[in-house]
Design a protein that fits this description.
The complex is a heterodimer.
Chain A: E1 12-14, E2 21-24, H1 30-50, E3 54-58, E4 61-65, H2 67-76, H3 80-109, H4 117-127, H5 133-148, E5 152-155, H6 157-175, H7 178-186
Antiparallel strand pairs in A: 1-2, 3-4, 3-5
Helix pairs in contact in A: 1-3, 1-6, 2-3, 3-4, 5-6
Chain B: E1 14-16, E2 23-25, E3 33-34, E4 41-42, H1 49-69, E5 73-77, E6 80-84, H2 86-95, H3 99-128, H4 135-148, H5 154-165, E7 172-176, H6 178-196, H7 200-209
Antiparallel strand pairs in B: 1-2, 3-4, 5-6, 5-7
Classes of the chains: A mainly alpha, B mainly alpha.
């Protein structure tokens, strides 16, 4: 067990036994920055889901897919389990995580702590490992290379949006100071 | 290796919340404890950690066989049907000249699940045998496998995009095979196994033997 000590700005505390990161001194405006990044990610996420990721042209026949239409084709292809897995990891969790993060950060920012921020923060922490936007992005790249052998591949708007989304989600998660959020939620109103 | 004799929360009758990391006093034995700050269930160690880890891990190992034997996708064209397993997908990338990509997919789809299952088995067995050797290395191993496990989903996403795009074209159609569901199951189960394992158990043996 460790006693909390005050650290210089940007300092971090690590466990004496296993070297795990205990806490880090965040900037005082860390969660305001996290809110800005999460809002930006939210806009990009909408674009990424509405527009097609890739288009394909074979002998004049054109075909394109959005993320949701890809999940649908898996479902119709009798691969329901895989469709559910893809839906949860690339659509449901990222949407839920971002919406939850915005909810909590906005509640903290405007001082409305009793808006269910505690269970929402709880929920975000538990679903976090299941958001796989960055793995999906790599998967799209691999499939593009495979398809490039048989057809003309046209990268869509959503492909670039997913790259931006990946960066924004990572940035928001890195900036978000969960310790500060919990302490603020604990403070008497 | 000597470790610093720092006091542990467990010995002082304190519990740390696994969600918000608040430290609070343990209640009387037998009663349920909830974190006063976030309301999560509190326990000194994750409940039935080893039993759950083994259960998820052994199921994943069994499922790993069909995941690699069964085709993850079928490509049907005018020239007939081609069934691809994970390994033959990697081989295709390699022979078509995309060496970097082939190495990447091989690493994510073949190496990661295999190494992850072996590493988890080693960790669980070492805790079961109350090993006191290399606790820091084992803790680091746990952190690495917990982080890289998600990357094995790569092939599932590749199949998703291929099925979606090569569906109604005149040249070929691609269907997801039964291997894809099995492989997805392996990834999910190993993630559950890693989440059930409590790395603090690695350090408990140190205390008992000192």
């Amino acid at each position: 067990m460790h006693r909390r000590i005050s650290l210089p700005p940007g300092g971090e505390a690590r466990c004496v036994r296993c070297r795990a990161l205990l806490y880090r001194v965040g900037r005082p405006d860390a969660n305001e920055r996290a809110l800005a990044l999460a809002l930006a990610a939210c806009i990009v996420l909408i674009v990424a889901n509405v527009f097609p990721i890739v288009g394909l042209e074979v002998k004049g026949v054109h075909n394109s897919a959005t993320l949701f239409s890809a999940v649908q084709s898996l479902w119709e292809d009798k691969a329901q389990a895989v469709a559910v897995l893809v839906f949860v990891t690339t659509i449901f969790v990222p949407v839920a995580e971002l919406a939850g993060l915005i909810w909590v950060l906005a509640a903290l920012r405007f001082g409305i702590r009793n808006w269910g921020a505690v269970p929402v923060l709880h929920f975000i922490e538990s679903v976090k490992p299941w958001g796989m936007v960055e793995v999906f992005m790599l998967g799209v790249m691999v499939s593009l290379v495979k398809l490039a052998h048989i057809a003309t591949v046209e990268p869509g708007v959503a492909l670039f949006s997913f790259a931006a989304l990946m960066a924004l989600i990572a940035a928001a998660a890195a900036v978000f100071d969960a310790d500060a959020a919990w302490q603020q939620l604990e403070a008497p109103q | 290796m000597r470790t610093t004799a720092a006091p542990t929360a467990a010995r002082m009758g304190l519990l740390v919340c696994e969600v918000c990391r608040l430290v609070s006093r343990a209640p009387a034995p037998g009663s349920d404890a909830h974190c006063p700050r976030c309301g999560a269930m509190l326990h000194q160690r994750k409940p039935a950690s080893l039993a759950r880890t083994w259960a998820f891990l052994l199921t994943a190992m069994i499922l790993y066989v069909p995941a690699n034997m069964l085709p993850i996708m079928d490509t049907s064209s005018l020239y007939g049907t081609q069934r691809d397993t994970i390994v033959s997908g990697v081989a295709f990338l390699w022979t078509s000249g995309s060496f970097i990509l082939a190495a990447l997919v091989f690493f994510a789809s073949v190496m990661v699940p295999l190494v992850k299952m072996i590493a988890l088995a080693v960790l669980a067995a070492s805790v079961q045998l109350r090993s006191t050797k290399h606790p820091r290395t084992r803790t680091r191993l746990y952190r690495i496998i917990e982080y890289v496990g998600r990357w094995s989903m790569l092939d599932i996403f590749v199949v998703t995009m291929l099925v979606a795009l090569v569906q109604v074209s005149t040249l070929a159609t691609i269907h997801a095979g039964p291997g894809a569901a099995a492989f997805g199951g392996v990834v999910v189960l190993t993630m559950f196994a890693a989440a059930s394992f409590d790395p603090r158990l690695i350090w408990d043996a140190q205390r008992e033997n000192s």
